[in-house]
Specification:
By secondary structure, this protein is of the alpha/beta class. The chain has a single domain, classed as Rossmann fold. Strands 1, 2, 3, 4, 5, 6, 7, 8 and 9 form a nine-stranded mixed sheet that branches. Strand 1, helix 3 and strand 2 form a beta-alpha-beta unit.
């Protein structure tokens, strides 16, 4: 069994209380498939920005079927561990030294000229869990644009973010700790998505006590007009 050291499990205590990382990771992967409208990841290639370690844990220890998985993260020690110990030929891991006020203050600021360490590869699914949750708006805008380059024409983007009602645009839940919890309005997150060449397919609110994620959004390339299953979740929601 693939064992991930406890120090690499950086989820908050509420998420950790929901179960081992492999189990919560499996639940999130299954939920993502449900939202996309597919039965599994079998045969698909997936890019995970801000990967952490729980999806690798789930893929290996819970026998998740997929063609390939690429994880990218700013946490170099964890990426080095995964690259050296996650002995599954379907999995690859890359470090990116991107600046973030909360998690990587000494990194290099992202820009539209940033080249991700995957060159020109494209994927069926691009996902981000708890990434936009910790981004300033300018950085979030760049991230959406960078990821747009790495999705196939018929692919998807699935991500979580802290999204709330109102016309506030963006705010920090803890102003003294920038990007500890970055909260976006629906209007602003929609603007950032569309400006980067994505279109929103569905939105789902966070369910207290449910899955270990914030609000989630499913997107597709803006120009792609394929038929999609009717979303199970609309844009209106109550807290």
């Amino acid at each position: 069994m693939f064992v991930v050291p406890e120090k690499f499990n950086r989820n908050n205590p509420t998420v950790r209380a929901m179960g081992p990382p492999a189990e919560t990771g499996l639940r999130l992967l299954e939920y993502m498939c449900q939202r996309i409208g597919i039965s599994s990841l079998a045969g698909l290639e997936m890019l995970d920005l801000g990967c952490g370690c729980r999806f690798a844990d789930a893929i290996i220890n819970r026998n998740v079927p997929l063609k390939s998985y690429v994880g990218i993260d700013v946490y170099k020690e964890m990426i080095d561990f995964l690259a050296n110990h996650a002995k599954d030929p379907r999995l690859e891991f890359f470090h990116i030294n991107a600046r973030n006020p909360a998690y990587n203050k000494g990194g290099v600021p992202l820009s539209v000229d940033t080249v991700l360490p995957i060159h020109d590869r494209k994927f069926d699914i691009v996902c981000m869990y708890s990434v936009i949750t910790h981004q300033l708006p300018n950085d979030a805008a760049v991230i959406f644009k960078l990821l747009r380059r790495h999705v196939r024409d018929d692919g998807w983007l699935f991500f979580s973010a802290a999204i709330d009602d109102g016309d506030f645009g963006y705010q920090e839940r803890f102003p003294e700790k920038p990007t500890e919890l970055s909260v976006y309005s629906v209007d602003l997150i929609t603007q950032l998505i569309e400006a980067a060449g994505w279109r929103m397919l569905s939105f789902a609110p966070r369910v207290p006590g449910g899955l270990p994620n914030q609000e989630t959004i499913l997107c597709a390339p803006a120009y792609e007009l394929r038929q999609q299953p009717t979303p199970a979740h609309g844009l209106s929601r109550a807290r």
